[in-house]
């Protein structure tokens, strides 16, 4: 089946620094990828839709200047958390669309645990 | 407001037993309903996807049912294994949502399978 990878799986950074998270579709091309964050015991919250070759679409309340998204190729999207703060600590998950038989199948990465100290 | 509610919130069963998880939704009209399994600290993994016209779909020991009239879905797990311990999430795609952007997520049922 389709595989989506994320790197790193865990990262600890200091307040004020930036951290980049990569999302790759390993065996398929994805024109659209999604970035979610998830707090403990909460459902996934969509942050933005990443479109290859164009600007990302951010959900309401998500600061585009803080969460920079770059979808440079059909297999790679990156999320950069700029000037990180402790409240940015969360579980970040990406997903990629694979168009199947009339349904957009969505494959998720394993997630990245970000801790900001 | 489109909502997806799951019950129970958490469940503990013994290994080898069966269990059924419930999902009630208000999303209407909708395109499809999905069940995902999410292990702790991992991304969700798709178990089943049912379109609005389907009533049931199986994936190994997992069987999902859908009643579009009552807006209810269930996920039945047969002969549970320790590895089934995870959160099971019901997700509904509103009709016309396009490319998965407008998915409506439930909070999930946390299942613990004990030996």
General description of the model:
With 117 residues, chain A is mostly beta strands. In chain A, 0% of the residues lie in helices and 55% in strands. In chain A, a hairpin with a 6-residue loop joins strand 4 and strand 5 (45-51). Chain A is globular, with a radius of gyration of 14 Å. The N and C termini of chain A lie far apart (37 Å). Chain B is mainly β and 115 residues long. Chain B is built from no helices and eleven strands. Chain B has strands at residues 4-7, 10-14, 19-25, 30-38, 45-51, 56-59, 62-67, 72-77, 86-94, 104-105, 109-114. In chain B, strands 2, 4, 5, 9, 10 and 11 form a six-stranded mixed β-sheet that branches. In chain B, strand 4 and strand 5 (45-51) form a beta hairpin. Classes of the chains: A mainly beta (117), B mainly beta (115). The A-B interface holds A 4, 6, 32, 34, 41-44, 46, 49, 57, 91, 93, 95, 97, 102-111, 113 and B 31-32, 36, 41-46, 49, 51, 89, 98-101, 103, 105-108.
Question: Which key phrases capture this entry?
Answer:
heterodimer, A: mainly beta, 7-stranded mixed sheet, 55% strand, globular, B: 115 residues, 6-stranded mixed sheet
List the helices and strands and how they pair.
The complex is a heterodimer of chains A (117) and B (115).
Chain A: E1 4-7, E2 10-13, E3 19-25, E4 32-38, E5 45-51, E6 57-58, E7 67-73, E8 76-81, E9 90-99, E10 104-108, E11 112-116
Chain B: E1 4-7, E2 10-14, E3 19-25, E4 30-38, E5 45-51, E6 56-59, E7 62-67, E8 72-77, E9 86-94, E10 104-105, E11 109-114
Question: What structural class do you assign from the helix and strand content of chain A?
Answer: mainly beta
What number is the mean pLDDT of chain B? Answer: 93
Spell out the helices and strands of chain B N to C.
Answer: EEEEEEEEEEE
Q: How far apart are the first and last residues' alpha carbons of chain B, in Å?
A: 41 Å
Roughly how much helix do the residues of chain A carry, as a percent range? under 10%
Please describe the biggest sheet of chain A, giving its number of strands, its sense, and whether it closes into a barrel: 7 strands, mixed
Shape of chain A: globular
The percentage of residues in β strands of chain B lies in over 45%
The count of helical stretches of chain B stands at 0
Q: Could you name the ranges of chain A where pLDDT drops below 50 across 5 or more consecutive residues?
A: none
Structural class based on helices, strands and sheet pairing of chain B: mainly beta
The count of strands of chain B amounts to 11
In percent terms, what proportion of residues of chain A is strand? over 45%
H/E series of chain A, N to C? EEEEEEEEEEE
What is Rg of chain A?
Answer: 14 Å
Could you tell me which chain pair has the largest interface and how many residues each side has? A-B, 26 and 21 residues
Task: State Rg of chain B.
Answer: 14 Å
> Residue share in helices of chain B?
under 10%
Between the first and last Cα atoms of chain A, what is the distance in angstroms?
Answer: 37 Å
**What is the 3D shape of chain B?**
globular
| Quaternary structure type | heterodimer
């Amino acid at each position: 089946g389709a595989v989506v990878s994320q790197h790193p799986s865990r990262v600890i950074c200091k307040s004020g620094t930036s951290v980049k998270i990569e999302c790759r579709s390993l065996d398929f091309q994805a024109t659209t990828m999604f970035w979610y964050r998830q707090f403990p015991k909460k459902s996934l919250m969509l942050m933005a839709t990443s479109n290859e070759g164009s600007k990302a679409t951010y959900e309401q309340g998500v600061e585009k200047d803080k969460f920079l998204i770059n979808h440079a190729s059909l297999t790679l999207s990156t999320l950069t958390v700029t000037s990180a703060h402790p409240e940015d600590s969360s579980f970040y998950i990406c997903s990629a669309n694979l168009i199947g038989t009339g349904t957009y199948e969505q494959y998720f990465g394993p997630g990245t645990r970000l801790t900001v100290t | 407001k489109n909502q997806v509610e799951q019950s129970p919130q958490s469940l503990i069963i013994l290994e080898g037993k069966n269990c059924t998880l419930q999902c009630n939704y208000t999303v209407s009209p909708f395109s499809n309903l999905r069940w995902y399994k999410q292990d702790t600290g991992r991304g969700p993994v798709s178990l089943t996807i049912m379109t609005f016209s389907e009533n049931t779909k199986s994936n190994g020991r997992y069987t999902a049912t859908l009643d579009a009239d009552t807006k209810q879905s269930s996920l039945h797990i047969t002969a549970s294994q320790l590895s089934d311990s995870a959160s099971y999430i019901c997700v509904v795609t509103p009709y016309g949502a396009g490319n998965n952007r407008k998915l409506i997520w439930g909070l999930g049922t946390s299942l613990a399978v004990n030996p």
